[in-house]
Amino acid sequence: MYLLSNTAHRAILFITFALFFPMNVMAVSAQTTVSNPAVYETVLNAGKGTKEIQAFYASVNYKPLWIGSKNKARRKALMSALKSSGDHGLPTSRYNIDKLKTAFKSSGNKASAGTTELLATKTYLQYAHDLTSGATNPKRIDKDMAIDRPWRGDLNLLTAFSKSSPSVFFKALAPKSTEYQNLLAEKKKLERLVKTADKDTKIPSRTLKNGSSGNSVVLLRKKLTALGYGKLGNDPNFNDALKTSVMKFQKDNGLNQDGVAGPGTIGRLNEGPKQKLIKVLVNLERERWMNFPRGKRNIFVNQASYTVYMHDNGRVSFQTRAVIGTRDKDRRTPEFYDEMTHMVVNPTWHVPSSIAGKEYLPIIRKDPSYIARSNMVMISENGKRVNPADLDLEQFSEKDFPFSIKQRPSAGNALGRVKFMFPNKFNIYLHDTPSKSLFARDTRAFSHGCVRIQDPFDFAYKLLEKQTSNPQGAFSAWLKTGKEQYVNLDKPVPVYLTYRTVYFGDASNPSFYPDVYGRDKKVFRALSKAGVSLRSVQS
Predict the structure, then answer these.
(1) Torsions phi, psi of 511, nearest 5?
(2) Which residues, including other chains, have CB under 8 Å from residue 168's CB and lie 6 or more apart?
(3) Hey, how many other C-beta atoms are within 10 angstroms of the C-beta on 47?
(4) What distance in Å separates the CA atoms of residue 530 and residue 394, rounded to the nearest whole number?
(5) pTM (whole model) above 0.70
(6) Contact 335, 147 (CB under 8 A)
(7) Which is the catalytic residue, given 88, 311, 431, 448?
(8) Which domains does the chain possess?
């Protein structure tokens, strides 16, 4: 190797060796030119998973970020951020704060300087990834949580930090969404309430309505007053004013607004601060999983509240009730993100093979005429239409049923009169339904996995308003043909199938929803394993 005195020539030589020779070969000459030999040696031998760390330090000539008198502000800002990580519901124990503090104190020792620098960098990156992308990976928690987290690369996070004011950078690192900020505030509130939880009295599980009286009504008033639904006093009689408050609580929590405090309403009211705090921690994590721009217009499906929202410029511009998949493992609606590209008016329902064999084969065995009466056709593998009455259906089983079934467009079609498509590997979409009565229920988990919506025509008009001056007229014209019509959206709309058991939306108070699929338990278990704990609660 020839040693060159010119700085530019040295840089060219360094890059050439980086591209064509192993790192340990570079060590022979680079030590004399790097900013900090200790950092250079440690980073060089950092091991697997540190390529971006190595790339960053190479880009700054191995100048340290953390050690040395000039980096005191960075060390202070990092330690402050780590100590307050619990404010965000992050796993503070994961960051080994005491170990890092001790390392910083001994960083003047040349022998440990490089090790301290690398420890601080890895700790910073762990914290930054946890805060910007979530401390857990949803895909590893539940197969139905097929969520792609946003991910800022190590090189990106290190470069951005190196060029920023340390304290300002850490403050700006958390998600900016209003939902996240509201959840943080609710977390603080609940942590205070947890301390007095033993004084909280539950309302007995009985139905309270106009005409009811007694201590249960007094407890109901106290609960609603504490939750901000008015100053309702201690009157033991259930009256119209109390009914109004009950209805408002029901509206905020996705319940039927009948003004009757039945088991469902009382169950929600009896949720203690500890249970609510767990939900908030879980939903802070979910918000970190969605820490990215969601588009000026987007469709937000909250499975936990059985609601479909359309957002325009950050505000709800449309919402409707929904029915989601049942609790059966193979029918739960998954969580994922995609783009709605078109709608199909007067859709044909192509019955999935699993449903055809499992559900329709037993029916047509007993009554072959069911197919024709349901406006369906059965088709053989060679594409020919067949009459089930001409077949010996006993020879087929659920798994080897060789026929496909489709239902032609009609008002009685299982998809209703319109479906909204965002092509995806799950074959999930939004659609109309002839089974309107299900929308009146509090719990609406009845579908095979797709999302049924209560007001599909109004939803279609809202989607079309961006591309036609008369969306209702255009949609009605397609509908009247009675024939299947594909209608492309001029601009695809992002669709987020989410699961928020605590949700503010445009409201000032949060709504808490049941964990219909049991996903909250799984997420909190993963958070606990990572090191998240309930502050003020040790039970």
Answers:
(1) -110, 135
(2) none
(3) 6
(4) 53
(5) yes
(6) yes
(7) 431
(8) 201-271 (1.10.101.10), 294-348+412-500 (2.40.440.10), 349-408 (no CATH)
pLDDT in tens, the chain (539 residues): 333 344 333 333 333 333 333 333 334 344 458 889 999 999 999 989 999 999 999 999 999 999 999 999 999 999 999 999 999 999 999 999 999 999 999 877 777 899 999 999 999 999 999 999 999 999 999 999 999 999 999 999 999 999 999 999 999 999 999 999 999 999 999 999 887 765 668 898 789 999 999 999 999 999 999 888 999 999 999 999 999 999 999 888 878 899 999 988 998 898 889 999 999 999 999 999 999 999 999 999 999 999 999 999 999 999 999 999 999 999 999 999 999 999 999 999 999 998 999 999 999 999 999 999 999 999 999 999 999 999 999 999 988 999 999 999 999 999 999 999 999 999 999 999 999 999 999 999 999 999 999 999 999 999 999 999 999 999 999 999 999 999 999 999 999 999 999 999 998 889 999 999 999 999 999 999 999 998 754 44
CA dihedral over 325, 328, 330, 334, signed as positive or negative: positive
Asked about 311 being catalytic, the answer comes back as no
Choosing from 88, 129, 448, 450, the catalytic residue is: 450
Is 343 in a helix, a strand, or coil? Answer: strand
Element (H, E) at 503: strand 502-503
